[in-house]
UniProtKB/TrEMBL annotation:
Annotated CDD domains: secretory_peroxidase
Keyword match Heme: yes
Organism from which the protein derives: Deinandra increscens subsp. villosa
Protein name (database record): Peroxidase
Cofactor note: Binds 2 calcium ions per subunit.
Amino acid sequence: MCLLLLFLPFVFTFLLPAAVPAAVPPLQPGYYAKTCPNAELIVRDVMKKAMIREPRSGASVMRFQFHDCFVNGCDGSMLLDDTPNMLGEKLSLSNINSLRSYEVVDEIKEALETACPQIVSCADIIIMASRDAVALSGGPDWEVKLGRKDSLFASQADADDIMPSPRANASTLINLFAKYDLSVKDLVALSGSHSIGNGRCFSIVFRLYNQSDTGRPDPTIEPKYRQKLDKLCPLGGDGNVTGDLDFTPHLFDNQYFKDLVNGRGFLNSDETLYTYWKTREYVKRYSEDEEEFFKDFVEGMIKMGDLQSGRPGEIRKNCRVVNGGQPVAVVRERKVLSNYYM
């Protein structure tokens, strides 16, 4: 994950589902049933074609929900291109040389605009496409709640300040997730997004050669797996070389958790889920019960999808730019956490 964070309050309050003001319409299943009845079918059809063309696009698009929702709510802000007056999220520490497949969202938006002009938001496209990426990779399918608006701006600084590092340990991640009202169970289940996809050598070289500034590798890495990673990611090598996040990188299953139990987690932030006592039991449980993992993963994705900022928004015609071309300026108040990225 690849997948699987906080924050920089602005002049608004970052709202959890129970605190969404009356001015923000509630999210609901079947939101486009009358205005764009084939919306979900269109999204899945484009996703299916994209994943046939490029299998990695499934994992890439799935992670969009994480990177969008954790930065000021699920509002499509991560899709905005930079402008002369706005540094967006695409070049943030967590996204640069990491997130990809933006063109898949462009294709989905184009198809939806043909069928139902300016009806379906880019924020909702991310939610639907993320769900479809999981289902088309052999994972669970579920009903998504829709009705989000697209943000009027994006902030590279916010993304830099909010997203966690691949070096993060489980206790840090627990505290971050808790600020979004996401539980320890949600954290571990959502980390299962790394059941599909790849990670960069950049994210693990410290584990292989200088864990905790010891000049030694992470002792929790299984020896044969470490030898494999040493060959893939030699010291001084290309940090953008990628490796599989688990042993079945194109199949959404519980292999990720089995790998963690066996000391074969790719990222430090993954393996620490097994070595830390508060998260270990969930890892063990999911490694033995795929159905329970699927159920808890879906619950976590729905909870994460409920995050909203309460800010005004729109339905963009093009997911890369706000309508009219000029992002809205927002004044920051104060910085709470900083320098986490994934």
